[in-house]
Specification:
Length: 231
């Protein structure tokens, strides 16, 4: 599956969660659905005072994140340190013996299943982690889905000035404001998503293609590029 195919699929999933209030919540829930997980949480390290929780789908997601912070170990911590996708098996009888302190905390919580931590990148720098959890027996995590979410969602979430850091992506919006606005509106209508979601998707495509946001926007306006899923 190409990045464009994955983005079209993600766009369709994002369109199905438009009832949620914020962009962060919608992206987090879309990640959960793509990963076929029971819950998900997005964290960012781009804020001045260190890592913060950007969005979560349920309280258990926050609790599993918090246990890794308090124990100082786990898939989320390891993913931040290595920049790699890290999967931890916490099902009964597993031979995965990493993170003993976290395992004691999770056993006391009563959770059995898997934790999947995916590094989120913005402009090639590690900026945060998407962590999903699945209850029950372990299931395979598609590497393509993980790579896509790490790049696309990392860019979409962490280059949002309300959440992450400023970057050249925002600077270039100024001279290309009109074409970016028209392209965003075109994606908004065609994909059935909100305006800010459409802009996030444009940013993700620009990152994936290694092009300026204005260049991608112009291609959308001219009909040379589409981010909308096929109907």
């Amino acid at each position: 599956m190409t990045f464009s195919d994955a983005l079209a699929r993600f766009t369709a999933v994002l369109a199905s969660v438009q009832s949620l209030d914020t962009l962060q919540e919608r992206l987090c829930e879309a990640c959960r659905l793509v990963l076929d997980a029971d819950g998900a949480v997005i964290t960012s390290e781009t804020v001045p005072d260190g890592r913060t929780t950007v969005a979560w789908t349920q309280l258990l997601s926050r609790r599993l994140e918090s246990l890794q912070d308090s124990s100082g170990e786990g898939p989320l911590i390891e993913s931040l340190a290595t920049g790699e996708v890290v999967v931890g098996d916490f099902s009964p009888g597993t031979d995965d013996d990493r993170w003993p302190a976290l395992r004691r905390e999770i056993a006391a919580l009563g959770f059995t299943g898997a934790l999947i931590a995916i590094p989120l990148r913005s402009e090639l720098a590690l900026r945060g982690v998407l962590m999903a959890h699945r209850e029950g027996l372990p299931r395979r995590t598609d590497p393509g889905d993980a790579r896509f979410l790490g790049a696309a969602v990392g860019t979409a979430v962490l280059q949002n000035p309300a959440i992450g850091t400023q970057s050249h992506v925002f600077a270039e919006v100024l001279p290309d404001r009109d074409v970016v606005h028209r392209a965003t509106h075109a994606v908004e209508v065609a994909a059935g998503v909100r305006y800010e979601d459409a802009l996030a998707l444009l940013r993700a495509m620009a990152f994936a293609r290694g092009e300026e946001l204005g260049t991608v926007a112009a291609a959308v306006v001219d009909g040379r590029l589409t981010l909308a899923p096929p109907r």
